[in-house]
Design a protein that fits this description.
OB fold (Dihydrolipoamide Acetyltransferase, E2P), seven-stranded mixed sheet, 705 residues, globular, 16% strand, 25 helices, 5 domains, eight-stranded mixed sheet, 24 strands
């Protein structure tokens, strides 16, 4: 049996997480704040009643009720942390100000330079409305500055005036597309703004958090140092990401290779980097072990200062903060002669970070880092014991591999649910990447520390650069292997929950070795397979036409079972990222295999389940007309061709009355390639004629089953 008294923070963390979850899904649970307050009052009336009973009746046997009430309290703490956060967002909503003259804003993060813009988070401090009244506000806004010399000079902490009105972030226009609105909302952001050069003005004033400002200054200095030592190209991008957590210069194709090889965690400054630095310096200070108590304490304090200094160099990124806080608990335990348990230290750091920002619970980086460490702590040793060779080298190789396998097993449900993919050769990449990346981290730190020594600094920089070259070559080779990454994996929310329960059962079985856990594991596996069979059955029978919302493009999809055919314009077919960003996730969720097959809108074809002849598409017993506005119909025809739907697209002249002379239809769909002014005119005219109309540009994608 597990002695839960060893893990006090785990016992507190679980109800806190449940409370946070309850707050975010309160609407779906029909759980109002009033109901929660009533529940809270009831619980604590019961709490005081139990205290009274325990005082009056000696030897009261139901003392576990106190634990239940305590956990309920922390659940309510989690709930109301989220509700207080939502209340602050509500009272600071900038939408209530009508036509403001300008806003006063402060840059609260380091500007991120993109291809066509500069992205930065702003904190709106004040607003002047049209009546020249000035009001204090406290609202975060994501700003995209036009990429000019003026914008490039912006620094963290700068004060500016902005004259454009921030707009509320819109939900995704396509089903299953990345929900940027929800992502920002969980970060406390509801609005965004694009600022041209003449839409903002610098106030020539800077007030920044001195710790963060110092962190950014040091990081910029170290980035310049690496560049001046001759580290360039992909090697520079990787070294900046590994050593300092700066990934702005990391090319997309190189990032993709690390993802496909299952080694992306190496590029993200996290527990691996902190752990390597901790172990190296702990070994260097081994002479202070087994000595007087004061010497041991000095060592631990030095290690504590060291890891926090490294976190400062890495820009105090959330991933590095998680690892640093967790390791700090371990070090403090060593200082006070309480070794403690790693899982409890892990839970303590998670508890603190969730109290600071409850929305961290929905941050995939937060989840993956903690789940990976839990998997390593619990499962690494049992997995390592599977192989017991007489050869030391084999045992060492398997020991390294077992760490990766444990982490991948633990994170597999999250990887599949959020990213719909799984790297097959993760064990191979980590087998040689982990030791090489450790060498890069140590060598990189030495390089930066000794950068002031001529010749020696260049030698170390050359060595680090070559090690990174080997890493990049390795991931490129692994990524090129057949089936290096399995894509198109999909599980729904219920399957995800079942997989999490399966993972929890597996962890408990490894820890307890209880036979009942084996039964529970088999039950979860069976339930998951049944859900999968049910989903496959639904997918085989699905028939659906969907018109996607892709900016200034026309894309129509015809889904038949697990196959589909895309009908699109040339702009979409030539854009490599348009499909992956707007559509791919939806097809994965539908269980549809995408083989890259697509047809042009002006092309006639006879496919297995969809046909097109001239301007009419036949699909699932429906007739869909297509019009690019190029047709002209002067005379009234004796017969109008009946359609179930008419889709207008392109930048041609769209005349609804002219179309009604040829086609008979009651449903009009306006593709997102139709200009805004033309779409507005069509919507207005359709309303006058009593025709149902769906404007893709404004209303998002339309699905017809």
């Amino acid at each position: 049996m597990i002695s839960w008294f060893k893990y006090p923070f785990i016992r507190l963390l679980i109800p806190l997480i449940l409370g946070i979850l309850m707050a975010f899904i309160a609407d779906e649970m029909y759980l109002s704040e009033k109901r929660v307050i009533i529940m809270l009052i009831f619980l604590y009336i019961l709490f005081f009643f139990m205290i009274l009973v325990s005082v009056v009746i000696k030897g009261f046997r139901y003392r576990w009720v106190f634990a239940v009430l305590l956990y309920s309290f922390f659940m309510m703490v989690g709930f109301y942390m989220v509700k207080i956060r939502e209340y602050k967002l509500k009272i600071n909503d900038i939408s209530i100000y009508n036509v403001p003259d300008f806003y006063v804003a402060r840059l609260i993060e380091y500007p991120s330079v993109k291809d066509k813009s500069i992205k930065v988070m702003l904190d709106l401090i004040a607003v002047q409305d049209s009546t020249s009244n000035i009001f204090s506000v406290d609202s975060k806004v994501v700003a995209y500055f036009e990429k000019t010399d003026k914008a490039i000079d912006l620094e963290y902490g700068d004060y500016i005036c902005i004259f454009d009105l921030p707009e509320e972030v819109k939900p995704p226009p396509n089903p299953e597309q990345f929900d940027y609105k929800d992502y920002l909302y969980k970060k406390g952001v509801t609005h965004q703004v694009y600022l041209k050069s003449d839409a903002w003005l610098s106030m020539n004033y800077n007030k920044a958090n001195p710790i963060y400002k110092f962190s950014y200054y040091i990081r910029d200095f170290l980035l310049y140092t690496m560049s001046s030592l001759g580290i360039q190209g992909d090697e520079y991008a990787v070294s900046a990401a590994i050593l300092l957590g700066y990934d702005e210069s990391l090319p997309y194709d190189l990032r993709h290779k690390y993802v496909a090889a299952g080694a992306m965690h190496i590029l993200c400054v996290s527990g691996l980097h902190v752990g390597v630095i901790f172990m190296v310096f702990s070994y260097m200070l081994i002479f202070l072990d087994d000595r007087k108590s004061l010497q041991r304490i000095i060592k631990q304090f030095f290690l504590l200062i060291l890891i926090w200094f490294y976190a400062l160099l890495a820009g105090l990124a959330p991933s590095i903060l998680r690892a640093t806080i967790m390791l700090s608990f371990v070090i403090i335990g060593n200082i006070i002669n309480r070794k403690g348990f790693l899982l409890n230290s892990l839970a303590a750091s998670a508890f603190i970070l969730l109290c600071i920002e409850p929305a961290n619970l929905f941050d995939i980086g937060f989840l993956l880092s903690y789940v990976a460490v839990v998997g390593i702590v619990v499962m690494q040793n049992p997995i390592k014991r599977i192989v017991d060779s007489k050869y030391m080298l084999v045992n060492k190789i398997w020991e390294v591999t077992s760490v990766t396998v444990a982490a991948q097993i633990a994170t597999a449900p999250f990887t599949i649910y959020y990213f719909h993919q799984f790297p097959i050769y993760f064990w191979l990449s980590n087998l040689f990447m982990t030791p090489i990346s450790s060498i890069v981290i140590i060598g990189g730190m030495i390089m930066l520390l000794l950068s002031f020594i001529p010749y020696l600094n260049c030698i170390i920089a050359w060595f680090v650069s070559k090690m990174i070259f080997v890493m990049n070559f390795g991931v490129s080779w692994i990524e090129s292997l057949p089936y290096s990454i399995v894509k198109g994996l999909y599980i729904d929310k219920l399957q995800f929950i079942v997989l999490l329960l399966l993972l929890l059962s597996l962890l408990l079985w490894v820890e307890l070795r209880a036979k009942r856990m084996v039964f529970l594991i088999m039950l979860m596996v069976s339930f998951f397979l049944l859900l999968n069979i049910e989903n496959l059955s639904k997918q085989r029978n699905q028939r659906e036409m969907i018109v996607y919302s892709v900016n200034n493009m026309t894309v129509i999809d015809f889904i038949n079972g697990r196959s589909h055919l895309l009908l699109a314009d040339t702009a979409f077919i030539n854009d490599e990222t348009a499909f992956s960003y707007n559509i791919e996730n939806f097809l994965v969720c539908k269980g549809v295999f995408h083989n890259g097959e697509s047809r042009l809108l002006d092309e006639d074809f006879n496919h297995n389940f969809v046909q097109k002849r001239k301007n009419v598409v036949t699909f699932d017993g429906k007739l869909i007309g297509l019009s690019d506005g190029g047709e002209t119909f002067d005379a009234e025809l004796s017969y109008r061709f009946p359609l179930d739907y008419l889709i207008v697209y392109g930048r041609g002249r769209h005349d609804l009355l002219s179309l009604l002379k040829v086609y008979k239809f009651d449903n009009l769909i306006i593709a997102s390639s139709v200009p805004y002014y033309a779409a507005s005119r069509l919507v207005e005219k359709a309303g006058e004629l009593g025709i149902k109309c769906h404007n893709i540009r404004e209303e998002g994608a339309l699905s017809i089953e």
